[in-house]
């Protein structure tokens, strides 16, 4: 293949020539390793902290610094100058504020689609997802996530659908396209007793030669010489803070880092290499709920998966690692004040998500009982007025909250506003934001990253880095 010709004809060359000087604008590390030069990426690992605002990245790093005296793995890569860094415009076809399906489709299909679609255009045509292109080029391909494996971000790399909500149909596509390792939640999309069509997808995957794992022990004991389908939980895996404080959850569910390691072990010896997408999907769900414990500790769990990928890539020398997010969400931040440090540090005492706490409160509870519940799981004493205010959302005196993933209409926003008075963390909304997002790269091809790119450019960047022609 003519590498120079491929790059010249790609979207990234156009971007560089029209906006910036391509000879001066490469955001590569100062001490560029010689192994990057003229070398293609045999493997690609793309890690996505879904819904990660820059405030989320900051909060996780500040927390780890104050707790352990260490930076997050992501920020340490910046400090060590190991990665190329850029910002990326994640606009969709229909809005400057994207949803996850359009965002993932921009990377997966190389085309901007409207919010709600998976690699599906308005004229009814579909764009082949990038993991299929790599499969046809002879590589192994897989996805890992903490939400349903059929959810928007994995699907953008692997499937096509005019409705992101058709997760039962997306599950069938995974079988048809023969992906090598798929790990995440979503039992109800595979289980014959729960699917509307009664189809037993677990049995179909097993007939196709897959190992099926439904808990942590089964996954860690899996034979990595065979394809693996791992589905954990009815819908999603538990939040990291809940998993860490409830032994029964830790026993049943793997961590994101553990799933990432199993996926790499499954595919690392393939002679033509592999591509892997890793998603911390519940960072986004926690942001929708303004849930600081859910957000912080799932972001840290994602950071541990970053370390797994980087440890492999630094040893392997043939792997391009991409670390990013698909959009901002709720834009949390540590607020100015004389007690900001000490109040922020109290989050280290949180032992559960807000979702878990709010589900413990009953309409018949007294303000004192609410105080005891919050004290048990957050470690601080609510003022009586705050506990009384929270109760109004249960006894009909205040309107119940709506919101994405708030199926029980819990008072997520109200509780986060109360918590802000004790932890100094504020939020601007409970929904996506149109941020330019962080993008970091390590390994072969990373030296070609420009400081500013569009989301669709990343599709062609991955193909070029691996020297896979866009001919499918």
Structure description:
There is one protein chain. This protein is of the alpha/beta class. The chain has 21 helices and 14 strands. The chain has helices at 3-8, 11-19, 54-68, 73-79, 100-109, 130-136, 152-158, 167-177, 201-207, 216-220, 240-245, 247-252, 256-267, 281-288, 292-316, 340-345, 354-360, 367-378, 384-391, 412-423, 455-465, and strands at 43-48, 84-89, 140-148, 181-185, 211-213, 228-231, 274-279, 319-324, 328-329, 333-334, 425-426, 432-433, 436-442, 452-454.
SSE diagram, text form:
Blueprint (H helix, E strand, L loop, with lengths): L2 H6 L2 H9 L23 E6 L5 H15 L4 H7 L4 E6 L10 H10 L20 H7 L3 E9 L3 H7 L8 H11 L3 E5 L15 H7 L3 E3 L2 H5 L7 E4 L8 H6 L1 H6 L3 H12 L6 E6 L1 H8 L3 H25 L2 E6 L3 E2 L3 E2 L5 H6 L8 H7 L6 H12 L5 H8 L20 H12 L1 E2 L5 E2 L2 E7 L9 E3 H11 L7
Parallel strand pairs: 1-7, 1-8, 2-14, 3-4, 3-7, 4-6, 5-6
Antiparallel strand pairs: 2-13, 8-13, 9-12, 10-11
Q: Report the β-strand fraction as a percent range.
A: 5-15%
Question: Order of strands across the widest beta sheet?
Answer: 5-6-4-3-7-1-8-13-2-14
Largest sheet: 10 strands, mixed
Number of helical segments with 4 or more residues: 21
Alpha carbon gyration radius: 22 Å
- Cα shape: globular
End-to-end C-alpha gap: 16 Å
Helix proportion range: 40-55%
**From the helix content, strand content and strand pairing, which structural class follows?**
alpha/beta
> Which spans have pLDDT < 50 for at least 5 consecutive residues?
1-26
**Count of β-strands:** 14
List keywords for this structure.
472 residues; ten-stranded mixed sheet; 14 strands
